[in-house]
Design a protein that fits this description.
Layout: H1 13-29, H2 31-45, H3 51-64, H4 72-85, H5 89-105, H6 109-122, H7 129-138, H8 154-173
Helix pairs in contact: 1-2, 1-3, 2-3, 3-4, 3-5, 4-5, 5-6, 5-7, 5-8, 6-7, 7-8
Length: about 180
């Protein structure tokens, strides 16, 4: 059977998806390295139609830019709408998490609280731990028990996520 021309960058789909996820993780921990990983992911995506993976790279760019550019919230809203239109709940949740990280880095507890509330509403049935993580990074007590069982203690997990936000704050202030 011939299904028409196949756009293929030479990389297989799992490789491209893994690369995008790697960029997403590194965007939290090391924004400079994330630049290289995002560039690689975008190169691998060239010519492919992988909507969720494309969204992951765009969300990774949001995380990389958290606390820096004034357009992060607008970009997040656009990606949330795009993910919702495509019915990709994981991308919606990841985008809300990126927005929460942005507010945590900026120490904007008001906007973080509103973003966490939206995230909690979205993740009532799936990805419930994302709202916990958002509260950990903003250093506010859990407003609900999601039932998540952490590999390490909850406090250890909280400390690690909070340290990502404070490390980014220090990075932006030149400390």
């Amino acid at each position: 059977m011939n299904f028409g021309p196949r756009k293929w960058s030479g990389a297989d789909r799992p490789t491209v998806t893994s690369q995008a996820q790697r960029a997403f993780v590194l965007a939290f921990t090391d924004p400079r390295r994330a630049d290289d990983e995002l560039e690689t992911a975008q190169h691998l995506l060239d010519g492919l139609d992988l909507r969720a993976t494309t969204l992951t790279t765009q969300i990774a760019a949001l995380v990389r830019d958290a606390g820096t550019t004034p357009d992060v919230e607008d970009r997040a809203r656009a990606l949330q709408a795009e993910a919702a239109a495509a019915s990709i709940v994981s991308a919606q949740a990841m985008t809300h998490l990126a927005e929460c990280f942005h507010h945590a880095v900026r120490n904007d507890h008001t906007r973080a609280g509103a973003a966490i509330s939206r995230l909690r509403d979205l993740t009532r049935d799936h990805y419930t731990y994302y709202a916990d993580i958002a509260q950990f990074m903003t250093d506010v007590p859990l407003d609900q028990n999601s039932g998540t069982r952490w590999l390490d203690s909850e406090q250890h997990t909280r400390d690690r996520w909070r340290s990502l936000a404070t490390a980014r704050q220090a990075h932006h202030s030149g400390r």
